[in-house]
Design goal:
Strand order of the largest sheet: 5-2-4-3-7
Number of strands: 7
Largest sheet: 5 strands, antiparallel
Order of helices and strands: HHEEHEEHEEEH
Structural class: alpha+beta
Shape: globular
Length: 224
Amino acid sequence: MSDWLPETPRTLAFPTTSYVTLAGADWLASASPRPDDLQAHWALQPAAPSVLPCGTAFDVINAPALFGRRMVDRLWSDGPGSGPVAAHRGRILLFAAPGTAQRLPALLVWEEWGTAVPPLLCHGSGDAVTIPPLHPHPGTGTPRARPAYTDAPSAYDGAGGPGAGAADPASPGLSRWLVAPDVRKPWLPGADILLWACVRAARAAAGAQREAAAQHPVSALAGS
């Protein structure tokens, strides 16, 4: 059972940046065979999603929304934190170290809790993923988050402060960064750490189901 967490520096503060910085954009562009062209495209269309190849700068573990959010919660509450994380079309995309897409499924086969982990899409060498826009559209992310590629004023300075009006990251149509890349060389979890997060998330899901089952007879009696 994967209760063991590999020794890694721990980051206690959950990041709040919901848009990609210039340094983070440099890192994302490094995955492309033509990074300069990609940077030029972003300069013209910073609100457009992009498709990037996996396997060189990063792999991506693509999880169902609820389970993926539980993984992220465990990584930040009890683990070392996470690399960049995005929500895209009802899924959670966890950016991981290259090679993770190949190793994680093999580790899950031997894990006691592996059968409790929902199917994960592991994108590695030869695959590509769609990433969210570099900054959120007004009304879909953090209102005060201003994109790094433009000096446009008030559209990103809505009232209500950071987080006001933020959409549900599990929404099927939503594409946004939950943990946006903000440095040129972000730390990325490997297969061992994501296996640990999978087990913790599976346990949390099982615990929630047991609690719901225990409360169901009480609800039935209260209604009778």
